[in-house]
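anyone seen this seq b4? input:
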Amino acid sequence: MRARETTSAPLSRPGLRGREAELARLRALVGAVHDGDRGAVVLLLGEPGIGKTVLFDETVSIARDHGFVVSRGRAEELHELAPLASLASGLLHGDPPLLAAADFADLAGHHDQRIWLVERLAQLIEERSAGTPTLIAIDDVHWTDPLSRFALDVMPARLATSPVLWLLAGRQDPRLRGDGPRTTRIPLRPLADAALAELARDVLGGAVPPKVTDLLEGSGGNPFLAAEMLTGIAASDGDGTEPPERLVLGVRGRLAALRPGTLEFLRIGSVLGSAFSLADAAALCGRTAAGLIGELDEAIAAGLLQDDGERLVFRHDLLRQAVYADLAPSARRALHREAASRLVAAGRAPADAVPHLLKSAERGDHEAVRLLGGAAADVLPVMPELAADLSLRALELAPPHTPLAFRVGEQAVTAQTRAGRYTRARETADALLARQPPLDVFARLQSALGDTLWHLDDVHELSRRTTAALAVVTDPAIAARLTARQALAQSRGADLATARNTGERALAAAERAGDREARVLALWGLGEIALNAGDCAAAVEHHTALSAFDAAFLPEEAVARTHQDDFDSARRLLRTAGDAPPRPAMLMWAQGNLNLGLGLLDDAEADLVTAERLEADIGVPNNRVNIRVNLALLAMLRGDREAAGEHLDVVRATVADRPNNGNHAAHQYLEAVLADAAGEHAAAAERLRSAQRDHPFTRWRLLRTQCVEAVRIALHAGDQALAEDLAAQAADHASRNPAVPTARGLAAHAAALAHADRGLLERSVRILTTGPRPLHLAAASADLGRALLTTDDTTAAAALTGAYEAYARAGAGFAADRVRTDLDRAVTRTGRRVAARPRPGQGWKALTASERKVARLIAAGHTNRSAAADLVVSPHTVNTHLASVFRKLAINSRVQLTRLVLAEADTETAPAGRVPGAGPITAPRR
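predicted toks r here
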């Protein structure tokens, strides 16, 4: 017999022969989660029949013995399109079930908002697992439906601090994201010779003849195949000198002994999947369910099927595969196609028929194209990647020059764009246009392609194509959409007056046509044009109308209001977003911008990190460059040039991977800031000029509040002309926004630096005092204080003190230290003030104020959701804070956090036993 891996460990009981080491690891993981109150992921990986399900079942038993709440589910090959089917198979069953049916029904009602759905699902599991370890086990994870797969990618990280053990068994590594809890991979290899011998003794009940041992060589160490061979030997009462007739390939011989009707029944069942209903099989057989009872009894008696009370299940998928393999390919295709038709005729959802169509449909199958297109439309809101695949398959099947082909082709362009496959979407559209479709179809395709070209930042091509389509379009709604897209393209150009006129024409046309999509596009375009023109009031007007019409654009309205210094309205607006915002990443971006403007640097950082994570969750990082630029500028305020450099590296990589001219100015400005900090002043000034290459500096919205720093960089380089040009742009922006204190104050500050004018500095401080942005006021006050120092003016100390305290409150330690140096010169007692020292990187003192609040609430027993409600923030933000707390405190469980919080409270001096800087720890609201 061929030598295989051997083991000196004692052999386990029957069914687990040769799996002692793997079982020990699984037992240890269950114990670790039970004792450590922190999550973990374990992957059981291996070929069919290698023993995954046996170890899976044993782990479930061990977890139950340890007091775990158990959710045990199984993914199925033909249920890959049913949203959350794989998770639901376990979450809704159990004693008790992990989720109530009402909770899951509420989740299913929001399946088109996958970020919200996964967050809410995590909240429910977190609440259920509070104080009780939980096992979420899914077998055959390689067949999980896309929404369950998305949840498995995101939720382990979201629940990393809860005692949840994820047990996933499958043929391939699912490659979960690496930011979750520790992941243990347990690959199952062929059984060693000693284990196979024990398995043979278990089945045969005594000594194993040498020829049986030789026969087992053919199993390749696969325990299921070995067991099937041994069962056949035992049933034939032979010694294994020859493989019994019913043992061909371990399974096929068993089928030969069945009656023809039973074999047909099993073959049809194998087409329907590893689990199927008797009614579906009967329909496909053309018989009644009652008429199949004899065949069903024989299949169960032969050990091929089991009845789980709801459906018939092949005892192992290898058995199903063997039966399925006995069908001729043409027969399989025909049966799958017939199964799809019968499922549709029975009123089943397109998603139930689609898996069969993918295995059977041929070009020209109009019903298949229609069903695939319908399924793509159904899943587009929640899983655009799957929608793109389905619509492309429908396009392949559609006759090439038919209206049906162009209709599903348009759908494919839209789905691929939603999935972030912009280049492929453009290629699909161009291939369809090359077929020379009718003119109205040509216009529709160009309209659909408009969103793709916008994301590719190819505004020249967008303008060219919309102009061509507008020349031939006859449908008023499509004409309105094309006009709105033309306005968007013009918003990136120099002639914003023309762009505004185009946008107004588009809005009027949309209202006449009664087309919702055209109206959204027109309002969005007008808002973009107003922001690019620096007209903050008009931007608020258009974005308010847009968000009233479509709540998905509420973040844009909030951002427009922050540009107008209306922070109170922006804050109220963001709080109205509710528990299920349609675009949570954009909402967090808007919240981060608000907190950054308010000088709440710690909260802004958490918001921006959360926004980037939410974008990464759905795989469309459209705002990554802007997020990282803001995080880098925030790091520079703290004096952390290393972190700023790391953010710049991400920006460079993103720009290289996803070129977008719209990101050019922000990228170049960040390069300028870091070059200036490194003393490379000439290079920094050149970067500023590069940022202005397409448009003036203040045309870029992200950079308007950076004009003072840009003037400073120009002056460091000795480029007076550049400094004056930047100051003039700031003044021009202020003239458009006389009611916005930040615009007027920054213009005065920029001019003061460019022209060394102390009077303008004083004016800047007066104006900025009336605005909402403390860090801009601090910068102006610091420059005024330095100017006053040169004339020995006694008011210098007051200006510098105000600047210092504002920076210190914000946590801008580096900026505070720079002011502190000047402040020492302004006061008679130089030891009077202490420089703001940066927070350490580890330990309790490393936590921000917001992180301490979260830590105390979680230690008091709050869930992420109830802590978010107390703090009036998003649960996403609480999760970001909590991950940072665990990292800084070097802990991995909520139990450890509670101990640390209590110990910290004991060591701090606080009246009446209260923790300094915090209110009393309150019990969570349930």
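Residues 1-11, 240-250, 829-836, 909-926 have pLDDT under 50 and may be disordered. The chain has 45 helices and eight strands. kinda curious what u guys think
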